[in-house]
Design goal:
By secondary structure, the chain is mainly alpha-helical. It is 61% helix and 10% strand. The structure holds BIS(adenosine)-5'-pentaphosphate.
Length: 191
């Protein structure tokens, strides 16, 4: 599971990790954007939240993600990108995992990148991809939301010895190599 602020490289690294380990990449943001683009019932409800940079209500996220996670478990596992994102999501996900054989969280990768660099990356991406929530004001809000809603959740996983801090302010391949070394170390040690 990857936990990091907007622009830290969750999507970039999750994609590479899913190829490397041959497991599914589950991105809550991508799933939500697909729902919005297809104007599904859920997409119509969540569109404003995503555009404002506010978190979508926990119940909806849990409803949307439970099925893909259970499906991925049947096929060898998953990299979670962007979920859980609140303490409530973490607690609920933990309850679901505890009740189903084969679900075990192995590592929580926390990518650390300074605020200025996060802004820089997202403003570059805005020019390349034009994502609705990559405007100056919404980027600033998303960073605040990360600090108030998501960062505190890390303590939940730190208590369980799962958090691995990785310097995300390095070239993409260096970040990837650091994550793989850390994750393989976790597996070898059986932590
Ligand atoms: P989400 O899609 O998860 O967006 P985010 O967390 O804001 O993250 P980003 O996609 O902006 O950044 P990233 O960390 O994935 O970095 P990336 O690899 O793309 O969520 C969007 C919205 O959906 C939320 O605001 C919320 O409304 C809703 N939502 C999602 N999950 C939710 C949940 N669980 N609960 C409630 N609501 C939820 O990289 C960014 C850029 O930097 C790219 O251009 C990339 O090429 C570049 N880059 C990456 N790594 C490097 C590097 N090492 N060096 C230089 N550039 C790099």
């Amino acid at each position: 599971m990857l936990v990091a602020p907007p622009g830290a490289g969750k999507g970039t690294q999750a994609e590479m990790l899913s190829v490397h380990y041959g497991i599914a990449h589950l991105s809550s943001g991508d799933i939500l954007r697909r729902e919005v683009a297809a104007s599904t019932k859920i997409g119509l409800i969540v569109a404003d939240y995503v555009q404002r940079g506010d978190l979508v209500p926990d119940e909806l996220i849990l409803e949307i993600l439970t099925a893909p996670i259970l499906e991925a478990v049947k096929h060898g596992g998953y990299v979670l990108d962007g979920f859980p994102r609140t303490l409530r999501q973490a607690e609920e996900a933990y309850q679901v995992a505890a009740s189903i054989e084969g679900i075990e969280l192995q590592a929580v990768i926390h990518l650390e990148v300074g605020r200025e660099e996060l802004h820089r990356r997202l403003l570059v991406r805005a020019q390349l991809e034009g994502r609705d929530d990559d405007t100056e004001a919404v980027i600033a809000h998303r960073l605040e939301v990360f600090g108030s809603e998501t960062e505190p959740m890390l303590a939940f996983y730190a208590k369980r010895g799962l958090v691995i801090d990785i310097n995300g302010d390095q070239p993409v391949d260096r970040v990837f190599a650091s994550i793989v070394a850390a994750v393989d170390g976790v597996n070898v040690d059986g932590r």
